[in-house]
Amino acid sequence: MDLLRFITAxxxxxxxxxxxxxxxxxxxxxxxxxLEALEKSTKNRTDGSVDLALLTDGLRAEREQGxxxxxxxxxxxxxxxxxxxxxxxxHVQYTRNMITxxxxxxxxxxxxxxxxxxxxxxxxxxxIASLLQIPHVVVAVNKMDLVEYSQDIYNNIVIEYAEVxxxxxxxxxxxxxxxxxxxDNIVDRSEKITWYDGKPLLExxxxxxxxxxxxxxxxxxxxxxxxxxxTEELHDYRGYAGKVISGIYKKGDKVTVLPQGISTTISKLExxxxxxEEAFAPQPLVIQLSEDIDISRGDTIVKADNLPRVSNELEVxxxxxxxxxxxxxxxxxxxxxxRLVRAVVRNVEYKLDVNSLxxxxxxxxxxxxxxxxxxxxTASPLVYDPYTILxxxxxAILVDETSNSTVAAVLLQQ
Length: 414
Known about the structure:
Layout: E1 3-10, H1 16-26, H2 32-41, H3 60-65, E2 72-77, E3 82-87, H4 95-102, E4 107-113, H5 120-131, E5 136-142, H6 151-168, E6 172-177, H7 201-207, E7 220-227, E8 239-246, E9 248-250, E10 254-258, E11 262-271, E12 274-276, E13 278-280, E14 284-289, E15 300-303, E16 309-320, E17 331-336, E18 339-352, E19 359-360, E20 371-384, E21 395-399, E22 406-412
């Protein structure tokens, strides 16, 4: 059974948390004790209904304000697929949290209030989806019950958003009219929106194709752990454990170990403790090589005829996520999959307006939530692909050396 990671995004009060609560509630993925606690916490509501948003709004501040601040993750399963949902915050000042939640999502649900139409946050979240190259976009036009299920209002929103999608190059966009509060078109087809002939949301999520989202062409494998049992039975055993980031590896493949640039051959592949002839993304894998090479955590094994970029001078897009501003010349740790290197931000070229994608001059230091083009110099070479070509090998984070907190999301460029 495959896994779909998706994120919900939209403006404040568009109904993201309610939508996730409705998905969990109507698909019977809520435990009895959770349901009892939910009913108890909302027993004073005048209409007697259950507040499904509380299933995701876990922080006290969120419950008091009725908004989502942190990214809340929920897991559920249907007979067809497993799901991990990230509920992203809608307020402008929490854009960094939205980027964090969207960084490994295969699909984004952008909620639009049918009464408001396409607003500034809709464009902002769509731009982030474009920057992060999320393969599938679902535009859920919510609160259709408050516009009397008007097809004209829905069609106008579809036309308006289609222009946004065209400008940003969003390819796979699906539109669904819903009411998260009443459950229309969430799990079951709505009897009130008879003019809509598409799938309800859950059915679409169960059936959206994910196979094409995995790159099986560019073989990338980064070592997470070197296995050296040094027992009598396995005295000479040396295996390199990690996850196949992308591509396919076969026994006998000629490979290159980077950044050293050493050529060798795969002598054995192991998946789940069993020898196999080939392995592919995203499988966990142990590789054995025909020669003894000094390889350590963070080194990359690639096909000899398909090499990524290797450099310690990086052009990047940074989404700044720290309250302390970014100052050119500051030193950080750069984490790229399992490789950790020291880095310095050499210079900041321009700021990207997340509302228009226009380049703007940077006045002063880079502040929280700003996205900038910068140059990063690393102490040792990084093995990577541009994010636009292979996102799983083209993203990283910057970490503050003193506080150990993540201060920036990094998209590696050409």
